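[Automated response] Your request has been received and processed.

Submitted sequence:
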Amino acid sequence: MTEVQGRTAFITGGAHGIGLGIARALAADGVKVALADLDANALSLCKAELASITEVETVRLDVRDRQGFVEAIDHVEESLGPVTLLINNAGVAGSGDIDDLDYALWEWNIGINLWGVINGIQSVLPRMRARGLGGHVINTASASGLVGGTATMAYCTAKAGVVGLSESLRTELKGSGIGVSVLCPGPVATSILTHSAENLASVSVSRPVPSAERRDAQMSNVLEKAIQPDEVGRRVLAAIRANQFYIHTDRVMLQALEDRHREIVDAMPDEEMSLFTAELSAAFSRRRAS
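Generated structure:
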């Protein structure tokens, strides 16, 4: 369990959607919050909103910029103190099916959705471990990182990477006092489709992506009726306190997950384990339990 009051949180993608919902939940519980985002106007509005209940710092950051990430953390820690709650939340939606993808779209998706998380961990985690103050890391993946879908290949690839990274990180950090959670949201009532389209254009990946456009049009109606970001923020806060690893926002993927896991298990060889395989299995089990 991580007591959050008085800690400093660094939240990427913090000026909109889920990031802002997390910031509101943490701020209401006495956490100092640092919001990192590309949208300078939204950062100003968020700071004005949250400054009445907690200490707030904002930084404009592209999470693909490694040096910029380090400089942002340096600035925040000078202002608010050591970061012990790291929320790697920045992300973009939109991808396309195999006929629409090109290297630029792959790099845009992987760069923000996966490398953004990696950059956050590399920039902050060594400091957290060295200080010995404990803390928590939240990585935002997606339900699509657990089960792949159509017209989302690059997005699913990045988000599956975040899930795998988080699972490994949890094992690595056992006993360190630093908890890890992976947020796998389904539909959430945010403006991610609009912001993603704007971001896509800003990096000159502006050619039409028909499969993504069709899917985005369908998803817009779904998002309007989905769970609110503030509720997601409250669930994240509860997960930090309980050291809960997986965080879901709905049960939309339940059947698909059960089918996937059943297919994986059913594909295992039927033969008895050799001594070598048994030793490996036992070693892996001990590693996860330690």
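Summary generated for your ticket: The two ends are 17 Å apart (CA to CA). The longest strand covers residues 178-184.
If you did not submit this request, please reply to this message.
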